[in-house]
Specification:
Elements (H helix, E strand, L loop, with lengths): L9 H11 L4 H14 L21 E8 L2 E8 L2 H14 L4 H6 L4 H5 L7 H29 L1
Antiparallel strand pairs: 1-2
């Protein structure tokens, strides 16, 4: 298991450590599905093309908003495993400043052990979800800077 290059934010670090304590792949999936159950209901009105994650086999939507300089994500998927990945990421990245989110490298997924259990299409979906969240965080940062000028 490789160590991420930049220290992980505390919330994401706790999630990774919890996954590392689970040795059985089936239990890792159960923990991942627990994140899916924790997601707030996603508004149907937010299921629009600009919130859709491209490159995922399943339907995935992500929104991001800035609250007191911190990014809050909301997401949903029509597939439970993917929904779990969305939940893991929204919880792990919640409450961070946009620049902190941009510093996180997606290689932390290897430290969870999930990468060996995910099908190639799900692993690809994970990276697409993660990149979408980073793009949305970057856009929020750009919008904030533009609003200040």
């Amino acid at each position: 298991m490789s160590i991420p290059s930049v220290p992980l934010p505390p919330s994401l670090e706790r999630i990774v450590q919890r996954f590392q304590q689970i040795s059985e792949p089936k239990r890792r999936y159960e923990y991942l599905l627990w994140f899916a159950k924790r997601l707030k209901a996603f508004p149907e009105a937010a299921k629009v093309p600009e919130n859709k994650v491209l490159g995922c086999a399943s339907q995935v939507y992500i929104t991001a908003e800035l609250q007191d300089g911190k990014v809050m994500f909301q997401g949903d998927s029509d597939a439970q495993i993917t929904k779990g990945l969305v939940g893991l990421l929204t919880e792990g990245l919640a409450g961070l400043a946009p620049e902190e989110i941009l510093q996180v490298a997606p290689d932390f997924i290897q430290a969870t052990g999930l990468n060996v259990s995910l099908t190639p299409s799900r692993a690809n979906g994970f990276y697409n979800i993660f990149q979408t969240m980073q793009r949305k965080a970057l856009q929020l940062e750009i919008d904030l800077k533009n609003a200040m000028n």
